[in-house]
């Protein structure tokens, strides 16, 4: 009988499930009680992010200067557009052919995309322009040959 203490109270209660703790009501209740509440959203949790730009992002964060990633030149975008049109493909058709989103093709053609060798290689093979997208000399050469064909 020495072990039983009538002054201590033991409360047996189940812990709420994860779904309950994520609900808006549970968050408001915890805030009313004065408990610490941390809310954060998962970024791109259920999406398939294939081409994430991780190149030098930590370096860009540390720098105080105005730095940015190099973009695809407009000349390259024009070459992609001409090659795509010569094949009779729309942006969506080309994107489907290389297993990318149509938005990526639009970014490359408008010069807003950050160059990705994997995507550039797929585009080159799909439109049949091997190594035309590599340097500006090849671009100028392509423009001369395509004008001569018209």
How would you describe this structure to a colleague?
By secondary structure, the protein is mostly helical. The chain has a domain at 74-149: 434 Repressor (Amino-terminal Domain) (Orthogonal Bundle), CATH 1.10.260.40. 50% of the residues lie in helices and 0% in strands. The protein has helices at residues 18-22, 24-33, 57-62, 74-86, 91-97, 102-110, 117-127, 136-149. Helix 5 packs across helix 6. The longest helix is centred in the C-terminal third of the chain and has 14 residues, at 136-149. The chain is elongated. The termini are far apart. Keywords: DNA-binding, Transcription, Transcription regulation. GO terms for molecular function: DNA binding.
